[in-house]
Amino acid sequence: MRPYSVDFRQKIIDVWKKEKISIRGLAQRFDVAK
After folding, report:
1. pLDDT of residue 1
2. CB 8: neighbour CB atoms within 10 A?
3. What residues does each domain of the chain span?
4. Cα–Cα distance for residue pair 22/3, rounded to 1 Å
5. Using one digit for the tens of pLDDT, what is the confidence trace for 1-34?
6. What are phi and psi for residue 2, nearest 5 degrees?
7. Separation between Cα atoms, residue 34 and residue 28, nearest integer Å
8. What was the pLDDT predicted at 2?
9. CA neighbours within 13 Å on the CB side: how many for 13?
10. What was the pLDDT predicted at 19?
11. Strands (E), 1-34
């Protein structure tokens, strides 16, 4: 399994900062493991 790109990881962080959703919510939204 390849690591996620820096751009993709940054997008997830940006959403987390803007929307203040849980890590679990982010994992479900972006279909990644928490």
Report:
1. 76
2. 12
3. 1-34
4. 22
5. 789 999 999 999 999 999 989 999 999 999 998 8
6. -85, 150
7. 9
8. 86
9. 7
10. 95
11. none
Tokens of 21: 């959703």
The residue written with tokens 């959403």 in the block is 15
Six-digit token pair at 9? 């990881």
Q: Which two tokens stand for residue 24?
A: 């679990």
What span, in angstroms and rounded, lies between the C-alpha atoms of 12 and 6? 10
Q: Over 18-30, what HEC string results?
A: HHCCCHHHHHHHH
Instruction: With CA atoms as reference, report the closest residue to 30 among 8, 1, 2, 7.
Output: 8
Tokens of 23: 């890590």
Residue 9's pLDDT is 96
Tokens 């751009």 found at: 7
